[in-house]
Amino acid sequence: MLFLSKIQYLNIMFEVLYFNPGDAWTYVNPDKTITTIIGTSEYEMLDKHKKALEKGLSYWADMLAPRSKNTQPFQIMITTKVQFANAGTWGLDFAAKD
Length: 98
Hints:
Blueprint: H1 10-13, E1 14-18, E2 25-28, E3 34-38, H2 47-64, E4 74-81, E5 86-90
Parallel strand pairs: 1-4
Antiparallel strand pairs: 2-3, 4-5
């Protein structure tokens, strides 16, 4: 990931995962059925769009990190859909709960 942050908090605060064309994220349920969590990415984002996203995330990382109490980065998964001509992003929490 490109560091655009003056303080370089980006990788501490966020883990950005770009889905390539054809990539999807599925989950196999205990009953062996499959649940699609993030659908298939349909095209690759341009580098200039990725850099713009990273620049925006760097801004937020600089604001949030000095007072952050998180123990691991927030995962941001980015996929694309032709139908929307836009990127989509999901924030899911899969941390184990006690």
